[in-house]
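User: Some background: our group keeps a shared notebook of sequences we're curious about, and every so often someone picks one and asks for a predicted structure to add to the entry. Today it's my turn. The entry only has the sequence so far, pasted here. Could you supply the structure so I can complete it?
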Amino acid sequence: MQRMMGLVRRCADDYRMISPHDRIAVGVSGGKDSLTLLALLAAMREYYPRPYELTAITIDMGLEGMDFSPIAEYCESLGVPFHIVKTQIGPIIFDYRKEKNPCSMCAKMRRGALNKALTELGYSKVALGHHYDDAVETFLMSLLFEGRLSCFQPVTYLDRTGVTQIRPMLYLTEGMVRRFAEEQRLPVVKNRCPADKNTKREEIKQLIVRLSKEYPDLKDRIFGAMQRLPLPEWGVIPHKRESSRSEGSCDEERKAKG
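Assistant: Of course. Here's the predicted structure to add to the notebook entry:
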């Protein structure tokens, strides 16, 4: 956990994600990624040199069988307020509209619900659980399916809502996150989405697995290329590191294999 917090801190510092006295909401879906992010940010409050406030927000999509009570209990154990926003996004997409390609609309509706909740609760910064592998996959999806060089940004300011999105786990691999969730016994909620594991992202994930057998450093090269541009906002910002009790942990190699 100490090593992973060091990598999260390095990412936050490299892209200046956290300012003093920020009020940060963590978007918690119930999956391993967002729960890992919540656990790390909650623990990091104790030593990070710029103090911040933390809360957790879950968008309940209205899918049957999704029980978020274990997450509420986990948040209480961390000393983090928990808010759940009930919606009918799932029934609207799958039952009413019967979308053949539901992921894009679902993401848009979830973002809208999350941004509305942030505004109502008075939070202007939200931390999302995207990690290293997510970034590589998103880049390849944009290249292969859309014919453009693009990816989400480490820090994104949404001028229409005044919300800033940060992604502090970009230096953590999916393997690291998976092992952490298992070792810490995080209360992962099983995804009941009908489209789970049947998406374009899953196709790209499997493609990367096949290519990595022949080119083991494939993901490192793609991620490094993104940081060296041409992607906007991906260049690491030069800064002087502030001291902390866990400074040594930040000297871990950023892209540790997972």
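Suggested note for the entry: The longest helix spans residues 103-121. The radius of gyration is 18 Å.
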